[in-house]
User: What shape does this take?
Amino acid sequence: MKNTRRDHPVAHRDGANAVRARAGNRTVTRFKCLAVTMLLAASSAHGYLGTFDPDLHEYTGPQLVTFVDSNAAPLECIGLATEIGDVGGAVLGLFAPMAACTHSAGVTCKIIAPISPGAGQLIAAIGALAGPDALLGHEFRHCRDNDYHPPAMPFAKS
Assistant: This one.
């Protein structure tokens, strides 16, 4: 007796099943396209674009900037917000984890960000769609221009 299952490709075994399989694949492909589109639309990558013109801002003098390299920046940012008494920032960090954060106080500025390769940079690349240089540039701008965007909205200007 001849085994017909091996003699014919999958598409010829059962026409109805092959049609259903192709329709299922199209549905998955459409879902993936929709997911990628939504991710790009909701991303804050465009918050890292643009320029900072220091001539438009009053020069505040020299500033001591401390960089903290952390692969757990979202957790450390919540700790920093708690330490400085920013309850709103700490609560916001629980619901919308930050890839990096900055605290500027006069002549000092502290930046917590994933600087060296590791899980932190992967989290920043996925969550904020920002590489390490863009992320540091964004956070450094907070040292000089503290409130240039509302909390958790790096794409909007204050």
